[in-house]
Design a protein that fits this description.
With 91 residues, the chain is mostly helical. It contains five helices and no strands. Helix 3 packs across helix 5. This is Mor transcription activator domain-containing protein.
Amino acid sequence: MAYIKAGDVLPSEIIKLIQEYIDGDCIYIPRKFENEKSWGEKNGTRKFLQTRDSEIYNMYLKGATINQLVDIYFLSDKSIRRIVHKEKNKF
């Protein structure tokens, strides 16, 4: 997350009011509820994991064993089984 200088986006009256509560320290201002993004949505992690999980399941359907998938994706046996089960129950 990048910092934005308050002076670049806020009127001086609001800056003075904020300074009465917190002077010179960093403050996080959360998004409005309706503008919130899900985990991994902003940086693409969610999409990456969905694609990976789909690939794992397709390889499993084509005959790859759990142990082969563990070696290919560097995940635990339990994680591969969880992904296969999750993908199987999507449809």
